[in-house]
Amino acid sequence: MQTQPTLVFACAHLTDERLYAHQVVALRTTHDCRVFAFRDHPTLGAMADELLAQAPPRFTLIGLSLGGYLAFEVIRRQRERIERLVLLDTRATADTETQRQGRLADIAKVQAGGIDALIPELPARWMHAAHRARLSDLMASMASSIGARGQFNQQQAMLGRPDSHADLRTVRVPTLIACGREDPVTPLALHERMRDCVVGARLEVFEQCGHLSTIEQPDVVTSLLTGWLADTGPA
Q1: Could you tell me the end-to-end alpha-carbon distance of the chain, in angstroms, rounded to an integer?
Q2: CA gap 65, 13 in Å, rounded
Q3: In what order do the strands lie in the sheet with 175-180?
Q4: Would you state the pLDDT for residue 129?
């Protein structure tokens, strides 16, 4: 029997449980916090099946980037189990051809040189310049923990995802959408489009922040989540 509301956190590409460490520390006294970082599944469907099998009957789903793509798959499969939804630095669009080619190039780079061949590119690709020096070692360690096989599987899953705006329009639970002001991967305009799909959705923007908001601006993200969770009862 659930004694605390459950928060299910879904990790971004090439990140592990440390992506949400600050938020979990702050919220675990009042919530059952469960963090999922997927390495072994080449499809969003398989990732969603594992998450749903390990989650309680009802939960709040929090996803960043790939974690957001996974949230859309959960919506398609068992939307009724989601009691609140948080989408961070993600997008409901499918890849453009340019984005697909970028994913294939990353796969080729890692297949040729291992995950270490890709790691040096990640801080400049994802994070605001103000945070790169502080977070580069963490970014490298998280990517190494996912590894070359995990990178391949995650990219395969993202390559196969559909446009999810129609699925998002079916959501009828409290929804929070937020991103870094300078997110170079999933820009603000895409979050505004997602907000417009969900009746009553709230949109927040983190200043001086890129794509990995939970570690770039941990205090701000945690404060927002804590307040929003207190203000919104599970649907």
Answers
A1: 18
A2: 7
A3: 32-36, 6-10, 59-64, 82-88, 175-180, 202-206
A4: 98
The pLDDT, as a whole number, for residue 47 is 98
Distance from C-alpha of 156 to C-alpha of 149, rounded to nearest angstrom: 11
Alpha carbon distance 48, 202 (integer Å):
25
Convert the pLDDT of each residue in 173-199 to its tens digit: 999 999 999 999 999 999 999 999 999
Q: Specify the residue for token string 């780079």.
A: 109
Helix, strand and coil content of the chain, in percent to the nearest 5, comes to 55, 15, 30
Parts of the chain with a pLDDT under 70: 1-2, 234-235
Q: Which helix (H) or strand (E) holds 170?
A: none
Tell me the C-alpha distance between 225 and 69, whole Å: 20
How far apart, in whole angstroms, are the C-alpha atoms of residue 77 and residue 54?
Answer: 15
pLDDT of residue 3: 82
pLDDT value, residue 204: 98
Q: Answer for the pair 79, 170: CB distance below 8 angstroms, yes or no.
A: yes
Please tell me whether the overall predicted TM-score, pTM, comes out greater than 0.90 for this model: yes
Retrieve residue 143's tokens.
């990517």
Sign, CA dihedral 21-17-105-186, equals negative
Query: Which of 83, 59, 65, 73 is closest to 167 using CA atoms?
Result: 73
Q: Measure the CA–CA gap between 176 and 22, rounded to whole angstroms.
A: 18
